[in-house]
Design a protein that fits this description.
This protein has 319 residues and is of the alpha/beta class. The chain is built from ten helices and 16 strands.
């Protein structure tokens, strides 16, 4: 059997947690779960709530000794250098565009199971998080627009869960919204200058070297209009986009406001934690018991020093 350590995320303003006591009840081997002291405080949950169920509540150092380390933003964690060889990390890894992270995982023979690659019957296991990303980014970004959004015109690029979240938020605020699916890029390029707000929700193909909006295109947009790049990929759909933070979320290029915070679901961390707990406990049980699980197998992007996700190789060859 394996042990799982749940660490408090160190990324700024990251308050999401993975597992609530209500779902711990459904896990057989509760003594295989190790929570960092204070894990649930941000949610109003005391350490005792985990302890009374049979879980271990320990120091950060003790958590990092467990077989599997679970953290929503583990790819951004500063403690990865502290991990032992042949441990497993479980969370949003985003190794494709992070050569330094990939090299560290390979050097330490660490296995990485990526939340972003977990799909059950073609639906993303964490689709609710993707909806929250689009919703939260839209709400937060528009506070920096300087105008009441009611009556403004917005374009959403993409038609997945993130786009649905953005649509939900924007329409609630009275914004007129048009959605451009992936196969409507040419139409969008004809019409993008008509909009006050552009929301990018496209999961960018790492084999593509082009962009949907180039820097030169910004001059065709309305002054002080806004690009909300929920995908926030470097060298992605928006040439001038780069990830920003909750504390410093926007910047301007040619009088166009850019918003590209890379972990907006953390604004709704209570909602995320509740939804995440409902779906993840069964996967945690399989990890503890080392049972085969097709979803987890397909989401294993690096195993024992070997890259299994071809997207990592494809992207890192091009840079």
């Amino acid at each position: 059997m394996k042990t799982i350590g749940f660490i408090i995320p160190r990324k700024e303003n990251e308050n999401r947690r993975i597992l609530l006591p209500s779902e711990v009840l459904k896990i057989t081997y509760k003594d295989s779960l190790y929570f960092e002291k204070g894990y649930g405080e941000v949610l109003g949950i005391s350490d005792y709530e985990y302890q009374k169920l049979g879980c271990n509540v320990v120091s950060k150092e003790e958590v990092l000794k467990q077989d599997i380390i679970c953290d929503p933003k583990i790819g951004d964690a500063s403690y990865l250098n502290e991990l032992k060889e042949q441990q497993t990390i479980f969370g949003w890894v985003h190794a494709v565009k992070n050569r330094e992270l990939t090299e560290l995982l390979l050097k330490k023979n660490i296995t990485a199971i990526a939340f972003e690659d977990m799909f059950y019957k073609n639906r993303h296991v964490f689709y609710q998080n993707n909806i929250l990303a689009g919703e939260a980014a839209s709400y937060h970004a528009l506070t920096y627009l300087g105008r009441v959004p009611d009556g403004l015109n917005a374009a959403i690029i993409g038609n997945g869960n993130t786009a649905h979240g953005a649509y939900k938020a924007l329409t609630k605020l009275g914004v007129n919204v048009n959605i451009y699916k992936k196969d409507m890029e040419d139409l969008f390029k004809e019409e993008f200058s008509n909009y006050d707000i552009i929301v990018n929700c496209v999961l960018w193909d790492v084999k593509r070297f082009d962009h949907i909006i180039y820097k030169k295109d910004l001059k065709k947009m309305k002054p002080n209009s806004m690009i909300i790049d929920v995908s926030c990929d470097l060298n992605g759909a928006i040439e001038t986009s780069h990830p920003t933070t909750i504390n410093d979320p926007i910047y301007k290029v040619d009088d166009i406001i850019h918003y590209a915070v890379d972990h907006t679901p953390s604004f709704f961390y209570q909602t995320f934690t509740k939804e995440c707990s409902k779906v993840i406990y069964s996967y945690l049980e399989d990890l503890i018991l080392e049972r085969d699980n097709e979803v987890l197998l397909k989401a294993t992007i690096i195993k024992n020093g070997e890259i299994l996700d071809q997207k990592i190789n494809d992207y890192q060859k091009r840079v």
